[in-house]
Design goal:
Layout: E1 10-12, H1 31-36, H2 43-60, H3 87-92, H4 106-109, H5 113-122, H6 126-129, H7 133-146, E2 152-153, H8 160-164, H9 196-202, H10 204-219, E3 227-232, H11 234-243, H12 252-259, H13 261-284, E4 289-293, H14 302-320
Parallel strand pairs: 1-4, 2-3, 3-4
Helix pairs in contact: 7-10, 9-13, 11-12, 11-13, 12-13, 13-14
Length: about 325
């Protein structure tokens, strides 16, 4: 069942500036985005700008701490006090919280000796493990067993969507994850099936993993801990699909959009549709919070981001509500 929380966290982690890419679903840049696009003078100011954007988003949808829409009734029986939402969820809703929530990303989780031991035992590399829901569930839960964390995050990767449309993705070791045969012209896109239905069929193992994770979290006493699902943002996906890696061709994403603007926008739209369905499906399988990673945000200038990508993110933010 979908989680009973009124808002999914839609947090874009981007080296462009985390505040530049937050998704209040408004037709125009609001005041908070205008403020955020100016460079923050300090980490504290950057954090405050991010908080303001979150709160404008929360206020836009009139989100409060009471999910009960029943009218007040003096004659009604006293209500049972509601159980407080988890810390991570309250932070995502923009509420004041008693501490900063902490969770362990998949990359950090690889330092765990139990992860390395499990990987050796199953005899699979990272990308192979992602195809096996039992591996995904085990690696997702390992940090929860070791540390007092405020959330779990799906053990996965941002490039599962390029894989799902038919592209080869490799992780040769020491150089990061790569797309060895990137798209160079619009004609190359005809080699891949960018339909949402096909992509979702090829992502079924991830969704099965989410269901299994939630089941095992309940069995092991972590049922009250939120599970974070995620996807790459559309531009980040396009960047890898046309550039191949994060290091070899740093301008490839924007170059493709500038050289083939119509085809580039069509690709972004197709990817946005897939990302939307993928995130919704994760929520339906039990994810409590959603993150959208604009990991290659530093590879697109502000004016290009506003022209090509912001509309995609606004659409995700609107439709995910």
């Amino acid at each position: 069942m979908p989680p009973p929380y009124p808002l999914l966290l839609l947090l874009l982690l981007t080296t462009l500036d985390v505040t530049n890419a937050f998704l209040p679903p408004l037709p125009r840049r609001n005041n908070a985005i205008n403020r955020a696009l100016g460079a923050a003078a300090s980490p504290e100011e950057d954090l405050e700008l991010t908080r303001q954007i979150i709160m404008e988003h929360v206020t836009k949808y009139e989100i409060d701490d009471d999910d009960d829409d029943d009218d007040d009734d003096d004659d009604a029986a006293p209500k049972t006090p509601k159980k407080q939402k988890p810390l991570m969820v309250r932070a995502a809703l923009g509420q004041n919280v008693e501490k900063t929530p902490v969770w362990l990303f998949r990359q950090a989780g690889r330092h765990l000796p139990e992860y390395r031991e499990y990987k050796d035992t199953v005899g699979r590399n990272f990308l192979e493990m992602l195809q096996h829901p039992e591996d995904v569930a085990e690696c997702t839960l390992q940090p929860l067993r070791r540390y007092p964390l405020d959330a779990a995050i799906l053990f996965s990767d941002i490039l599962v969507i390029p894989q799902a449309v038919g592209m080869s993705v490799t992780m040769p070791g020491g150089v990061g994850i790569q797309v060895p045969h990137p798209v160079t012209t619009p004609e190359d896109l005809t080699n891949y099936d960018l339909s949402t239905d096909k992509a979702m069929a090829n992502l079924s193992h991830v969704l099965e993993s989410v269901s299994l994770i939630k089941s095992k979290m309940g069995e092991e006493g972590f049922g009250a801990t939120p599970l974070i699902g995620f996807s790459a943002a559309p531009f980040t996906l396009l960047f890898y699909m046309v550039g191949g890696s994060s290091k070899k061709n740093p301008t490839a994403g924007v170059d493709f959009l500038k050289k083939y603007p119509d085809e580039g926008k069509k690709l972004l739209k197709d990817l946005t549709d897939i990302v939307l369905e993928y995130l919704v499906a994760q929520v339906e399988r039990g994810a409590d919070i959603i993150q959208v990673f604009e990991a290659m945000g530093m590879m697109i200038a502000e004016e290009d981001f506003l022209e090509y990508e912001l509309g995609c993110l606004e659409y995700l933010g609107t439709e995910l509500r």
